[in-house]
Amino acid sequence: MQTKLGRKFWTAMLVFGLMGQVAWVVENMYFNVFIYKMFHASASQISAMVMASAVVAALTTIIMGAVSDKVGKRKAFMSVGYIIWGISIISFAYIKSVMLTIVMDCVMTFFGSTANDAAYNAWLTDRGDETNRGRIEGFNSMMPLVSILVVFGGFMSFNLDERGSWTAIYYIIGIATTVIGIVGWFIIEDAPDLKKSSQPIGQVLAYSFRPSTVKANRRLYAVLGAFAVFGISIQVFMPYLIIYYEQTLKMPNYVLIMAPAIIVAAVVTALYGRVYDSKGFKTSIVPSLAMLLAGYVLLFFFRSTVPVFIGSLLMMSGYLTGMSVFGAQIRDLIPENRAGQFQGVRIIGQVFVPGLIGPAIGAAVLKNAELITNSDGTTSFLPNRSIWLAAFIVAVVLAAVLALIPRAGTKGK
Known about the structure:
The chain is mostly helical. 77% of the residues lie in helices and 1% in strands. It has helices spanning 7-39, 43-71, 75-90, 98-127, 133-155, 163-187, 201-206, 211-216, 218-237, 241-248, 254-279, 281-301, 305-333, 339-365, 386-403, and strands at residues 371-373, 379-381.
């Protein structure tokens, strides 16, 4: 019988999950556009920003996840973290250089990773169990697509070539994130069995990196490794996605094309968690990978509206359902009362390794990309379809990696 979680849990998950992803969308997709349009950043500069943020996210989640285990609290880290996260987003309204954007992106990532990557994800793990993990993860994994829809729809009327539009965007997102942090103090409930760790903080920090821990949780680390390869495939193209649609495909109204694809993919992702709950990891990850590969193929070969729409729908569905399946499996495999300590190794697989390798591959394949001359005489690069071929190749490697993970029990099917 499925464990009931209650309305308060789902409300808190909705507002924190959605607002957190909205903030990450602005960072992961719009910061790239921001420095591309305002400062004419190169592919290597965009890659450097993504890499730096990935490093900070990993280190922050390792440390703050363990700290939240040590003190036995998630609520405080989530609420206070979101409040300061929002304030740091507002600061981007006053930035006037690529280098300062990269530095402040790292500062913002520290607070965002503390609140979301470490505390929020540990909280989800605390509150769920094997009877409802797929449903929770399906709902949670839908949030990135919904957030893209919210951001695209909310900002489609803004002229992103104007500085004033970016100032408005940063104020809107920053204030909303801060307000959610305040609201969270009244609606978040820590798991009743969450306890303060009696171990010294050094031992808590080191636990998930010990060889003995790896040996005792081999399947968990194998899945994390596969998750890293999955993330690398996504990060090959993600930093350049909006620029590709708008500049390379000449689709200024790409939001109108993407919105239906996002809505359908979000529904698919929300329902897909049930597949994991009934069929397990090995069975449910295959359709996700197949959709991802099919999307890459269409986006590589076609440039017209209809096939780009279908390719984007398949790519997004594969991406988000894959995130859902990997996330649910990892939460199922994390040892009880160790959720915070394992958020660090989770973020290494989900963000750090993909954030270092994926953008580097993308920058490499775009090294000789076509250049266009801007109105002020500067030049900007045009992402080309090579990003889809590179992402496809990495996804094929993922298929081979998944085949090496042994089946183990119901959730290992």
